[in-house]
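Incident review: delayed structure delivery

Summary: a single-chain prediction request sat in the queue longer than the usual turnaround. Root cause was a stuck worker, restarted by the on-call engineer. No data loss occurred. The affected request and its eventual output are reproduced below so the record is complete for anyone auditing the incident later.

Affected input:
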Amino acid sequence: MKRSAVITWDQLKVGLMIIVALVVIGVAILKLGQSAHLFARRYTLVTFVPSTAGLRVGGQVTVAGQLAGTVKSVDFLPVDNDTTKNLKITVEIDRALQQQVRRDSQAKLKTQGLLGDKIFDISPGTPRFAALRDGDTLKLGEALDYEAVLLQASGALDQVSGLTGSLQKVANDVATGQGTIGQLMTNRSLYDALNSTLSSTNTMIARLQNPRGTVGQLLNDPTLYNNLNKMLVSADTLVATLGGGVNGQNGTVGKLLHDDQLYNRLVTAVAGVDTLVGTMQHGTGTVNKLFTDQQLYNQMLQAVTSLNAVLADVRRDPRRYTKGLITVF
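Output delivered after worker restart:
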């Protein structure tokens, strides 16, 4: 039995639905390919790293944070003494962005967010350097090590935990009345004593604020301020007079400060005294003998000793020396 050559409406609707679905799928593939640069012409660059830190084949490659390609391969290098080049990363980049990647560009292994996937990010170069070509090597820059950050954060959390324990201990001591703060919070007698002290302090402050008292007069009465001001003015006038102000040079202090005659006279007197002392030390007179002649010193000492003996004998028996000197008529 032959099939009918006439296409029914139901069959037409099914065909149209299939065509629309194919068109939607094609458009979706085209858009996804454009957003992921699947249909763009690409060129390859290589980078040598000590560790990929979780970067996988097929991972994203970005230039200045914008998607530019994918990671083509990650290969181990032969073992050698250079531990900074353990792996070789080959990336594919959209050729339209070739002028952005130059010899001063640097590659960094970054993380999307704090715990996201690893991406291969390239910084744009400057016009002073040439653009990298297919197969060139891209320099590796320093990137933030999130593992080190998490390790430091872990240490900080340990310190916070220890501090929390210390604060808890302090709070327990205060609650149980240990220490000064604990006594203030739990000891009623200490609170009463402090309250009494504050009351006494308030009373004393009130007395000090009394305008009739000494302190109140110092705070409120301008008489002391005016007297001090007058005294300072008088002191300034005195200093100005002593320093050579009006009639300053005519007084005694002014003469001492400004007249050099007294200075010259003092210099002359000192010179005269110096000459006299030199004459006394080096001359041949009596004064020099008193300083240098030992025999004269011994004779004077003997005479003074004898005179003292005579005076002592006179005090003991004055009649012996006054006999016959007094006559009574």
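Verification: The chain is about 55% helix and 15% strand.
Action items: add queue-age alerting; document worker restart procedure.
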